[in-house]
Design brief:
With 509 residues, this protein is an alpha/beta fold. It contains 19 helices and twelve strands. The protein folds into two domains: 129 residues, no CATH class; 342 residues, Alpha-Beta Barrel (TIM Barrel). Helices cover 57% and strands 8% of the residues. The strands form three sheets. It has an eight-stranded parallel beta sheet. A two-stranded antiparallel ribbon has the order 4-5. Helix 11 packs parallel to helix 12 and helix 12 packs parallel to helix 14.
Length: 509
């Protein structure tokens, strides 16, 4: 042991400095990548290795009988040992770096997976929320269908401005009651002028219109001489009237065509029976357009056509004035003819409501009666009138036929409130002008005075009175009925409003 310690001391004293020099030289040869910490570890390892080597030397000395001494520890062996130790240390460093990198990479992978997992969970939560909301919405919709909810009270919309109504009101509000009543009549020009045959409109016409603000004038063959004459007369009459005025004529086509009968050069239209036999409703439209066009050019603004009665052409009282007896076919003809006349700018008038074609007798001569019920009329006679109303007819003429099964009072239809108001106005929904057939016909004059007929017609709901037998008596009777309250002024105003809506419509074009 003393030898061992003596060798150790000798090594420490004599060679330690040389060993440090050698280590320094070897450290300079090492890579620059080694850190000071590695050097410290190497030195510590070297101390430990020295002790191991000393112990190994002691063993070897004992085994080999101490054949080797301290000087046999040559420099080459020490270098080899230190080289192995350096490699080992480098391996340890690389292993540490590798482990560190593995930890870092593993941490990144773990963090990435965590982030992806969180994102997936968040997306799944959002999808579940959307699904829950959609289910809630569907449930609410189902409940809304199942639950009866009271409808909200309708909100009254402000009506659009009625310019035509304003014009009409302006006329009516300024009228004295005398003019209002006169405006309900259409008469021949001779009635107000006192002239036997009127063919021109001069001072006499002007004075007559100033005195009596008649609602309209109707002209016949005797009043028409030629185009220039009738055009000038109608133009002057229209301009002389202090209120808009109807200038009317019976121009049905065929046998009842006052203008054509006069001989002036206009395009002639055949009778309605011939058109009806073709089955082509377009021909009825062309007929209406042709008639309406030449009437408009001459100055007429109201045509008492078309005939909407149903009748057998061969045996009926109206002959070739009707389209035929097939309700549907005649309805098509009537609606198309209305479209033609109105399309030309002339007011059309359906006649003779509720239908006189399928009866025996002539109301011009006396009383004519039908025993048909209202239900039977709905299924037959009324159909063409309904078609014409839907097509836009401005007026409907009520005949003097007595419908005893419809109105138990058995008065002529023109004087019947049931026929005029209940059926035509309310059931068929006609809101235009209702006018009587000529009140100078036998079906009226033989049973009623002009005064009675005029008042009864207004009370029934009629708007205009056509050609009473005694105009002055009829006018005075209606005026007196208004003044004594038998007929209210509001009732007269209702008719005037419908009349002036037609007359003033052109002012908006």
């Amino acid at each position: 042991m003393g030898k061992l310690f003596g060798r150790k001391k000798r090594y420490s004293e004599e060679e330690y400095e040389d060993e440090e020099l050698l280590e320094d030289e070897e450290l300079e040869e090492d890579d620059d990548d080694e850190t000071e910490e590695d050097d410290d570890e190497i030195e510590e390892d070297e101390s430990e290795d020295d002790e191991d080597e000393i112990e190994d030397d002691e063993d070897e000395s004992e085994d080999d009988d101490e054949e080797e001494d301290d000087e046999e520890w040559d420099e080459e062996d020490r270098r080899a040992y230190r080289h192995r130790r350096r490699i080992r240390n480098q391996i340890i460093v690389y292993a540490v770096v590798f482990v560190f990198m593995a930890v870092v990479i593993g941490g990144c992978v773990f963090a990435g997976r965590s982030i992806i997992s969180v994102a997936r969970q968040k997306r799944l939560a959002e999808e579940q929320l959307q699904l829950a909301e959609e289910q809630q919405r569907l449930q609410e919709e189902q409940e809304a269908h199942d639950v009866v909810i009271d409808a909200p009270e309708p909100v009254e919309e402000e009506p659009e401005e009625d310019y035509l109504g304003e014009i009409v009101t302006a006329y009516i509000s300024e009228m004295p009651i005398e003019d209002k009543v006169a405006g309900l009549f259409i008469v021949q020009p001779e009635v107000i002028t006192g002239v036997s045959t009127v063919t021109q409109a001069g001072d006499g016409t002007r004075e007559a219109l100033d005195k009596c603000a008649i609602g309209g004038l109707i002209y016949f063959k005797k009043n028409i001489k030629d185009k220039e004459q009738i055009t000038e007369m109608l133009s002057n009459t229209f301009s002389m009237s202090k209120y808009p005025i109807f200038l009317a004529v019976d121009e049905e086509g065929g046998s009842v065509s006052r203008v054509v009968e006069s001989g002036i050069d206009v395009e002639q239209v055949g009778d309605m029976a011939a058109i009806g036999q073709t089955g082509d409703a377009a021909q009825a439209y062309e007929a209406g357009m042709t008639i309406g066009t030449y009437l408009r050019e001459l100055g007429f603004n109201l045509d008492f056509a078309p005939v909407a009665d149903l009748a057998d052409v061969e045996t009926g009282e109206l002959g070739d004035r009707v389209f035929g007896s097939d309700a549907q076919a005649v309805s098509d003809m009537v609606s198309n003819m209305v479209g033609g006349i109105e399309g030309a700018g002339v007011s059309s008038c359906l006649k003779h409501f509720p239908g006189i074609g399928d009866v025996e007798g002539d109301t011009h001569s006396g009383r004519v009666e039908t025993t048909k019920t209202l239900e039977e009329m709905r299924n037959y006679e009324l159909l063409p009138f309904k078609a014409g109303i839907d097509a836009g007819a401005d007026l409907v003429m009520v005949s003097h036929i007595t419908a005893s099964a419809v109105d138990e009072e058995a008065v002529p239809s023109s004087l019947s409130r049931v026929i005029v108001t209940d059926v035509l106005r309310n059931e068929l929904g006609f809101q235009g002008v209702i006018i009587t057939d000529a009140l100078d016909m036998g079906a009226i004059t033989e049973y009623y005075t002009s005064e009675q007929a005029a008042v009864m017609a207004i009370e029934a709901g009629v708007d205009m009175l056509l050609m009473p037998e005694d105009f002055n008596a009829a006018y005075d009777a209606v005026l007196a009925a208004v003044q004594d309250g038998t007929i209210s002024e509001e009732r007269i105003n209702e008719s005037l409003e419908r009349i002036y809506r037609l007359k003033c419509a052109e002012k908006l074009e």
